[in-house]
Amino acid sequence: MLSLREVTRSLGGTPALRGVSLEVGRGERLALLGPSGAGKTTLFRVLNLTLRPDGGAYAIGGEDAAGMNPARRREVRATIATIHQQHDIVPRLSVLGNVLAGRLGQWTALRSLRARVWPRADDTAEAAEVLRRVGILDLIHRRSDRLSGGQQQRVAIARALFQGAQLILADEPVASVDPGLSEGIVALLAEASEHDGRTVVVNLHQPDLARRFFPRIVAMSAGRIAFDVPAADVGDDRLRGLFGAGGTPVASPPAPQSFHAPEHATPVPVACAPVRPKEPPRRP
Ligand SMILES: Nc1ncnc2c1ncn2[C@@H]1O[C@H](COP(=O)(O)OP(=O)(O)O)[C@@H](O)[C@H]1O
Ligand SMILES: [Mg+2]
Predict the structure, then answer these.
(1) CB of 14 sitting under 6 A from ligand 1
(2) Which ligand is nearest to the CA of 45?
(3) β-sheet with 55-60: strand ranges across
């Protein structure tokens, strides 16, 4: 699915990737660990076709990224979902609106516009199904800026599922989520691979969560792969080697959040959930 050969990339004159080689199979899930500045975010940006390597080669689905024209790049990017630490959902939109936005890259302009004003019943039903799966169906009509950090990450995962993304890249998805709620979110990401066969790469600051939910751990340090081993082989010694004496990484500072609603993660069965009638049409 993903193949990097000796990929290098500098940013502002700083080498961020210094020769990264990595093979990830279709449906595989792996966790990326490494100290701040190791190049993890840069690697994600290469993987999602936002950054071009300076050197080396990157192929996705067997197709060389360097050979893609802009239209093809857009097409391939529509099959990739990236989830960031900052919940980059649209605050003014409802939860449903944000989930529907997952397909904007695939829909015609007209259908996209229509979806914002008067979504089709089959799209709404499908969006409701993914929201049920991530445990926030009852928030479907809530404005997204009225959600807690953990709920917003569930919306981002629901959007990725609705998008039909074959590759999900999550860069510190739980860095701004209350620690006690991180596990449920990481579990949803792992499940997207285990149950749906999607390829999932997650960068986590909690080695324990990484080891529990991901069978393969890839560690980065100073722009290189430090180790790439089964989770069972990641002991405290290796973590100390990677992160220093404490063996535990320091998470990036949490993104500011304007509103903290109480966390909520109770799954609601879709069949009996009260889905409110459509909101009156709103001009985009
Ligand atoms: N926009 C940028 N301009 C200059 N240097 C950057 C930029 N983004 C990242 N870097 C540098 O590239 C290296 C890797 O950064 P990054 O990929 O963000 O690491 P990580 O996600 O592991 O913390 C770091 O040395 C960082 O300072
Ligand atoms: Mg980063």
Answers:
(1) yes
(2) 1
(3) 14-24, 2-11, 55-60, 63-64
Contact yes or no for 130/161 (Cβ under 8 A): yes
Bridge partners, residue 169, by sequence: 82, 201
- Cβ pair 134, 188 in contact under 8 A: yes
Q: Ligand 1 atom closest to Cα of 36?
A: 23
Q: Which two tokens stand for residue 19?
A: 């020769």
Q: For 214, which DSSP code?
A: -
Residue 88 has what pLDDT? Answer: 79
Residue type, 80: I
CA-proximal residue: ligand 1, atom 13 (nearest): 16
Does residue 9 have its Cβ closer than 6 Å to ligand 1?
no
Q: pTM (2 decimals)?
A: 0.86
Question: What would the pLDDT profile of 161-170 be if each residue is shown by its tens digit?
Answer: 999 999 999 9
Q: Indicate if ligand 1 lies below 6 Å from the C-beta of 11.
A: yes
